Amino acid sequence: MSxxxxxxxxxxxxxxxxxxxxxxxxxAGQIFKWLQLGVESFDEMTDIPIKLREKLxxxxxxxxAKIKKRLExxxxxxxxxxxxxxxxxxxxxxxxxxxxxxxxxxSTQIGCRMGCRFCASGLLGLSRNLSAGEMLxxxxxxxxxxxxxxxxxVLMGMGEPMDNLDEVVRFLELVSDERGLNxxxxxxxxxxxxxxxxxxxxxxxxxxxxxxxxxxxxxxxIRSEIMRVNRKWNIVxxxxxxxxxxxxxxxxxxxxxxxxxxxxxxxxxxxELAGLLKGMLCHVNLxxxxxxxxxxxxxxxxxxxxxxCKKLCDLGLNATIRRTLGSDIDASCGQLRRKxxxxxx
Length: 345
Ligand code: SAH
Ligand code: SF4
Hints:
With 345 residues, the protein is α/β, with parallel strands linked by helices. Helix content is 37%, strand content 21%. It has helices at 11-20, 26-37, 50-59, 132-146, 165-175, 196-205, 220-226, 229-232, 235-249, 267-277, 302-314, 335-344; strands spanning 4-5, 60-61, 66-72, 79-84, 90-98, 101-105, 109-111, 126-129, 150-155, 188-192, 210-214, 253-259, 282-288, 319-321. A 10-stranded mixed sheet has the order 3-4-5-6-9-10-11-12-13-14, covered by helices on one side. A two-stranded parallel ribbon has the order 1-2. Strand 5 (90-98) and strand 6 (101-105) form a beta hairpin. Helix 1 crosses helix 2 (26-37), helix 4 packs across helix 5 and helix 6 packs parallel to helix 9 (235-249). The protein is elongated. The site of S-adenosyl-L-homocysteine has 17 residues, from strand 10 and strand 12. S-adenosyl-L-homocysteine (SAH) is lined by residues 116, 118-119, 156, 159-160, 191-193, 214, 256, 258, 287, 289-290, 292, 332.
């Protein structure tokens, strides 16, 4: 019988296991607390009797995110982690410090199969999904490393959350559990490239998270060129799903728009974008496109991005330019893993 990933189990599932083993109910709370604190072995669960630890070891394993590399920005307090998972696969997370506390950007998959042209994460395709416990382990490893408490989480690292939605939902339930890390869902953002059925499925849970849509283009012509996903679910279908999501959850959507020089940064594009999103409960987040070695996309100069932003605001949208953190450490996801893999070859 293969072992079970115990860090991915929810509190009520642990309670059931403890019950089935004929143990007192409080053991579930102890085990859950240790797992959420980020222990990497059953031996670290010091208030659990050795006999019980051995029993757990027989049927379960603890997924970990071991720090393989740590890049610290000299400009701000951003830290980029390259973690090694139990099977040797590499995963990236980025820890950022804001006035209101720490925020971490975590990965949901190893690699990605969506193949967006501007993104480093998709270059090698998808290796495998991450489990809910492995998403959690990225947070606890950073917390332990720095001796801090993280208050905000964004699912914007490697991978497409909607391509691994069951584990993402499980993660959201785990991380917000009051008996564990207790990070409120209002402090969590999930980003998707526009997997329409996933948006509908997520809306059924009615989580008070922020949903981010990586739009990046005002029309199908540009979007299909840079994002393969648009050939499956086009802009009309995507915007309809977003409107339905807002209606079902009452939550504002955040549209991400990576501004790429000569591709999507014209006045015409701003006008089209404003027409597309007008009247929606939403915010537009402009991201200066990050250069990736394997493609030729470039970000426009700062003035041009500011002009694009002003244009959107003049046309009635709520738009801002995202602050760039950790620009000296390749802080955008996918790039570090790619580099590390190249060095291994
Ligand atoms: N797969 C999900 C979440 C992870 S990607 C998604 O696509 O939404 C996180 C964000 O980074 C997305 O908005 C993505 O489009 C953006 N991104 C990827 N590569 C980028 C680059 N080179 N420059 C700027 N943004 C990039
Ligand atoms: Fe995948 Fe998102 Fe990168 Fe597209 S932008 S390849 S969906 S990680």
